Amino acid sequence: MKLAAAPISWGVSEVPDWGAQLAPERVLDEMRALGIAATEAGPPGFLPADAVAARALLERCGIRLIGGFVTAVLHDERRRREELASVERQAAWLGDCGAEVLILAAATGATGYAAARELTDREWGVLFDGIARIADIAGRHALAVAVHPHFGTMIERRRHIERFLADSEHALCLDTGHAALGGADPVAVAVAAGARVRHVHLKDVDRELAERVRDGALSYNDGVRQGLFVPLGDGAARIADVMRQLRESHYDGWYVLEQDVMLERAPEEGPPSWVSRSAEYAKRHA
User: Fold this and answer.
1) CA quadruple 77, 78, 83, 88: dihedral sign
2) In whole angstroms, what separates CA 52 from the centre of its chain?
């Protein structure tokens, strides 16, 4: 099993005022202490902006960089030039750091992850064209692109995932928690996507809190603060069934342990219990 981690499981996020942000050396060392030797990059600024320095830090900690989460406003042609330029910079850095996949989310243009509006048919076309342009950029840096449905982006609900799969041929980052949060069955998404699943975020979600966030009764940030995402196996995202389906479809990519948490303060030394529990669960169901 190709098992990786993500800094967000240590509370490291790009969202302003998210909470305590731990130093990269601590996060990487604790990943290695759990026997995990691969990670995603985390938000811009978490690892050094200089790729040589970033690679040196990763090597000192015994960690391989496999990819990075990149957001871009894809449905608004007026913003295309600046958005593609930003992606180009991030793709170059990821490629220079030895990553293999760019995980792309279709941002709304607002800060954070509030619920998104619906796109028009024309905007969907612009969005798909934007993904194709980013795939070209990524390819120049030896990166694949996996599109990540994510709550608070333009592809967040079940109907959005279904349209993405029906109207495009792009690869998918299957995030089990965000799929469930958006009202989709993660197993059904895995079946529908088939070989287009290029990357997987293993994330479980509390059913009751997910319903409140989905319905707008609770903000995404407040949901995370209250424990929206839970250790694998404790929630409603059908993790074991998803992993079984992916095995049957011969998925051979990375499984990334990703549990969004919002820390009020830095925890005591040692890997967080929620990460170790999820790692054990994933290995049992590999």
Assistant:
1) positive
2) 24
**3-41 pLDDT, tens digit each:** 999 999 999 998 888 988 899 999 999 999 999 999 999
Non-local (6+) Cβ contacts of 128 within 8 A are 167, 168, 170
Q: Where are the beta strands (DSSP E) in the chain?
A: 3-5, 38-40, 64-72, 101-106, 144-147, 172-175, 197-202, 204-205, 229-230, 255-257
pLDDT of res. 85: 97
What confidence tens digit (pLDDT) does each residue in 97-137 have? 999 999 999 999 887 677 678 999 999 999 999 999 999 99
Q: Distance (Å, rounded) from C-alpha 153 to C-alpha 112?
A: 9
Q: Which residue has the tokens 């975020």?
A: 201
Q: Token pair for residue 215?
A: 């319905």
Q: Model-level pTM greater than 0.70?
A: yes
Burial class (CB in 10 A: 0-12, 13-18, 19+), 45: exposed
Q: Which domains does the chain have, with CATH numbers?
A: 3-284 (3.20.20.150)
**Whole-number pLDDT of residue 110:** 80
Q: Are the C-beta atoms of 10 and 22 separated by less than 8 Å?
A: yes
CA proximity to 243, closest of 281, 277, 210, 274: 281
On whether the CB atoms of residues 175 and 148 are closer than 8 A, the answer is yes
Q: Which amino acid is at 255?
A: Y
DSSP H helical ranges for 65-157: 80-96, 121-140
Cα Rg for the chain, rounded, in angstroms?
Answer: 17
